[in-house]
Amino acid sequence: MSLTVADIQAPIAVEMELFEQKFRGLMKSDVMLLDQITKYIVKRKGKQLRPMFVFLMAGVCGQINESTYRGASLIELCHTASLVHDDVVDESNYRRGFFSINALWKNKVAVLVGDYLLTRGLFLAVDNNEHDLLRIVTMAVRELSEGELLQIEKARRLDITEAVYYEIIRQKTASLIAACCAVGAQSVGVDKTMVEQARIFGEKVGIAFQIKDDLFDYGTAEVGKPLGIDIKEKKMTLPLIYALNKAGFLEKRRIINIIKNESEKPKKVDEVISFVKNSGGIEYATQAMNQYVTEAQALLNAFPDSTYRQSLHQLVQYTIDRSK
Ligand code: FPP
Ligand code: MG
Ligand code: MG
Fold first, then answer.
1. Within a domain: residue 204?
2. Cβ contacts of 213 within 8 Å, gap of 6 or more
3. Does 202 map to a domain?
4. What is the percentage of the chain residues whose pLDDT exceeds 70?
5. pTM greater than 0.80
6. Helices within 219-280 (DSSP H only)
7. Which residues line ligand 1 (CB under 6 A)?
8. Which CATH number fits the domain that encloses residue 198?
9. What is the span of the domain harbouring residue 62?
10. For 104-117, how does the pLDDT look when each residue is reduced to its tens digit (9 = 90+)?
11. Residue 103 covered by a domain
């Protein structure tokens, strides 16, 4: 039986509700255009996985308090800012099945909205002397930006190694989930070692989360049909990197040529997908993902047992079982 987000949230249901209220309040602005856009964002928000990591890890390490709420808000503001900017960077007109901010209001507005959300986060931290939380989150946002730039740099060269792939996903995805867990632990005042353990746990979960995301490109039982969007965008992910490394010289050159020159043709994208599937790329990436999850669950076992910890174990499992 697979658990829903609502099941997993049970021990922090009250906190998540209150957090959402606080978060809506934080996004308010006197500038009508901004207010209109932030309302649009709040209405179309995702599953709130990141605040869940913050609250659950705080509960695992101690007593959830006002700092935990501020940490969760800081993370969610930066995360939202990064997605608004990401759609500008990727020239994407959609986010979670709705029009993106840049699609509706143009790039210049989207860039400024992202800046606004980021500074709301900075203010929240500075006004409340949350120096430690701010340090953790700032480090993560810096890594997000570096990861994005590394990805752009490498997209031009199709010979990316597994090591580079892991570095990109560690920076662009895992750093923020790591920060969620570190912020949760830090907010309840545990020592540095425990905050660091929480961070490493989050990083492993984040890497597994992104491998799962990359596997979606090859289809799921629910969707049935592969997407191939990453291939179209020349994004080299683990299943493909593995398959290319295994292939002989001629086969490798043929596939690289398709990605380089013909990746806008659906038939050709299907050819790359079949190549990856026939080479065992899906199994290989799934195994790598499961390994990270096993390591994360083991790290979590070193924390004191509680209903929060049980939920966190479930949340880790959910990140790789989810169907979207
Ligand atoms: C989604 O990735 C987005 C990110 C991993 C983060 C992007 C970060 C930035 C653009 C820098 C943010 C800077 C500040 C100041 C907040 P994706 O494009 O691989 O996936 P998606 O579009 O499908 O979600
Ligand atoms: Mg994107
Ligand atoms: Mg992107």
1. yes
2. 173
3. yes
4. 98
5. yes
6. 229-232, 238-246, 249-261, 266-278
7. 78, 81-83, 85-86, 89-90, 92, 114, 118, 141, 144-145, 148, 172-173
8. 1.10.600.10
9. 5-220+304-321
10. 999 999 999 999 99
11. yes
